[in-house]
Design a protein that fits this description.
The protein is mainly alpha-helical. The chain is about 90% helix and about 0% strand. The radius of gyration is 26 Å and the shape is rod-shaped.
């Protein structure tokens, strides 16, 4: 049991270290998809290590859990990022339409003043 705990701790330390280096080593801010992939991978690795420790293979559990978690995180992050991009596009289009409405109102007002 003591050996399993040591292996689990070293696996968790390796996973956390890898996530920190990956996150802090980026020159640009991470996208939503990348953040979700990292979070899913970390949670999956931690969960997999715990489950793997119960059956005597924490490293294998961490590797499997990390891979599955990263995949699930990437899919979720991709959906969220796509939705965010769509919302941003719609907001930009709405702002352009509002600006056009204001321009047309000003033009109508000028035409009314000319006609008076």
């Amino acid at each position: 049991m003591k050996n399993c705990l040591a292996v689990w701790r070293s696996g968790a330390t390796l996973t956390i270290g890898t996530l920190l280096i990956t996150t802090l080593g980026c020159s640009q801010p991470l996208s939503t998809r990348e953040k979700s992939t990292l979070a899913g991978g970390g949670l999956g690795a931690a969960g997999g290590a715990i489950i793997g420790a119960m059956v005597g293979a924490p490293a294998a559990g961490a590797a499997i859990g990390g891979g599955l978690g990263a995949g699930a995180g990437a899919l979720t992050g991709d959906q969220v990022q796509s939705r965010d991009q769509e919302i941003t596009s719609q907001e930009r289009e709405l702002a352009e339409q509002q600006a056009e409405i204001q321009r047309q109102r000003r033009e109508l007002e000028r035409e009314r003043q000319r006609g008076e």
